[in-house]
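User: structure tokens for this one?
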Amino acid sequence: MDNLSTKSGFAALIGRPNVGKSTLVNHLTGQKIAITSRKPQTTRNKIQCIYTSEQGQIIFQDTPGIHIAKNKLGEYMVRSAEGALRDSDVAVWLVEPQSRISGGEKHIAGLLSKAGIPVILAVNKCDKVKKTELAEVFEAYKKIGHFDDMLAISAKHGINLSELVSAVFKYLPYGPMYFDEDTITDQPVRQIASEIIREKALRSLGEEIPHGIAVMIEKMRRRDKGGITDIDAVIVCERNSHKGIIIGKNGEMLKRIGSEARQDIERLVDGRVNLKLWVKVRSQWRDSELLLKNYGYDKSEL
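Assistant:
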């Protein structure tokens, strides 16, 4: 691609928890890169997903949902999201199609106003409301911030995503691509596999436990013969009672998590996977700087 005719840059995906940021990047890249669930705070790390076309290259930075931090893990997540704004050329703010503006949304509006970069407001889940309601949403948000573009989209169903991509390219500088054309993420396979396991746990377990779990891949190796990938992983939780729930009666819950994760990981590595899971208790790991670093949440890297 000619550097004089193509654009390349970074777009931060910002928003409250569970608004659809990860669903959006998965749809744009056509592959499962970021995990999704109905549980808030599913995304914990900033994940870069690369979209390449004839127009150039967009590095979408999928960020944790901005929320009030209640522990060191929460602080890490919020800092990760805010850091993405500093490193980006444009911000895409995903919001719910609701005209009632929450205090959390007003806080994000304040962060964006200080960022000094173009802001695109993307009202997600537009398929769930009428056009008259969308108009009310746009008017409500105009009262709390300035937006360079405003769009109604559906990340799940792919509605108006090409328009969103075009809007992002509008604010990117001309220049060479940062990644090869066939690259879709900066995340190593090991990290994606770890997140897939956590996603299956999030979807299978109750409301309280998911916030207190982490997943560590202790071994990941592809056999020389047969092409099977052996993975040993540990699900970390904070209480012995939680450990029992994760394992389940006769180990059924852990088997379910492992079976569902294995299927997705096999698609990821394009081959058979032998996945073994264990559960360990690490009390209050979300408030331990050392354990957070061990589990991949290192604030020095932000």
